Structure formats: C-alpha cells, structure tokens
Amino acid sequence: QSALTQPRSVSGSPGQSVTISCTGSTTNVGAYRFVSWYQQYPDKAPKLMIYDVSQRPSGVPDRFSGSKSDNTASLTISGLQAEDEADYYCCSYAGNFTYVFGSGTKVSVL
Amino acid sequence: QVQLQESGPGLVKPSGTLSLTCTVSGVSITSNSWWSWVRQSPGKGLEWIGEIYKTGTTNYNPSLKSRVTISLDKSRNVFSLRLRSMTAADTAVYYCAKTVSRFDPWSQGTLVTVSS
C-alpha cells in the first residue's frame, strides 16, 4: 500500500492561488469519492480541510477547494494568506476497509 | 464538542509492546463512527494504523496487521492500541481520530520513542 504522490513543496505570493496534486491509482483515488485533505502546522495535529473530494467542514475558509479527475485529486488554495503556510496531506479510502495518506506537501507563502 | 486525548508511555524498549489509550469525550464511542489510530514518524508523513467500530469490528493497515490490536472499552468510552515487536522504525507521534470516511477530529498526538 504505497503512499499517494504529492509534490514536496509548492509556493505562492499572498493573494495568488496554489494547487496541490495527489496522485493515486484506480484502487484508491480513482475508485472512490472518499478523498480528504489535512492541514498540519509544525508540532500540531492535522486538521481536516476537505472531505469527500470537495466538501468543506464548517469553519474552513471557502478559499480552500477540492476536486478530482481520474486518479488525481487536487486541493486549491485561492487568495493565499500567510497563515496558509503549513504541510498538507491528502488521504483516500483504498478499498478493503483501508486508508492511505499522501506523502505531504509543504506550502510556502513568499 | 468531540475531543480525543491519548495516553500511554512515551518510551518503549526494542522488541517491547506499545500500549496507548484514547479517551473520547463529547460523544459516545458507541455512536455510528469508526475510531482510528494514525502515526507520523519524525519528519515524515502520516500512516493509518487501523480502526475499530462499536461492535468491535477492526480493520488494519496490511503492513502492520500482524503486530497490531485495537480494542475498545464502552464502559470507559475509550479505545486502545497495542503494537508488538517494536523497533526504532516505530518511533513516531501517535494520534487517535474519529473516522467517518475522513479523520476528524484528531487528538493532540503523543511521541513514542523506541529505545533501550
């Protein structure tokens, strides 16, 4: 069960948009709509930002959005803010009652 | 609101067994949710360990299945993790989380170090 593939880092200036990809396979991302995204600050627990591909929990700013195409899910942060600088992880249901996380992406705000 | 707090030793000897407990507050552990353990090795990504349902049904990461047992105690509203035959590779921050196709909320995490 290999980790989903994410870019190690992405960066953008305040106000810009950045998109993080999460590439899996036909047995996980491509097969189910149970894709979620988590934001993690250093030495803190992850926080749910997106679930079921594109649903936003209450309290999460609407500049965070999610989508999926074939075996790749994406998280887009629009109107990038300094507080968005963190690590982001995707996660997908992988069948057979298991889950797999992505490798993680560091978002830097220039 | 729902809160989770893990407890257990922060140091385990090589070949020993890790035992962690996650105390759930704000919701009954018999609600229609699964309850998961996730870990994160220092400087690395997240790894799902396994989950348990109120019926005692469990699902485990295939890579850890032979060494893991997750159980629950309805009377105390807690669920627990046991990981046997620990090695340095099991050194990580261990989290517990409520699971309904996603992990939310999470506990604060506890660092477990494997060392003699």
Description:
The complex is a heterodimer of chains A (110) and B (116). Chain A has 110 residues and is mostly beta strands. Chain A has strands spanning 9-12, 18-23, 35-40, 47-50, 64-69, 72-77, 86-93, 99-101, 105-109. In chain A, the strands form two sheets. In chain A, strands 1, 3, 4, 7, 8 and 9 form a six-stranded mixed beta sheet that branches. In chain A, strands 2-6-5 form a three-stranded antiparallel beta sheet, with no helix packed on it. The mean pLDDT of chain A is 97. Chain B has 116 residues and is mainly β. In chain B, the strands form two sheets. In chain B, strands 2, 4, 5, 6, 9, 10 and 11 form a seven-stranded mixed beta sheet that branches. Chain B has a four-stranded antiparallel beta sheet with strand order 1-3-8-7, with no helix packed on it. Chain B starts with a strand and ends with a strand. The interface between A and B is medium-sized, with 23 and 22 residues.
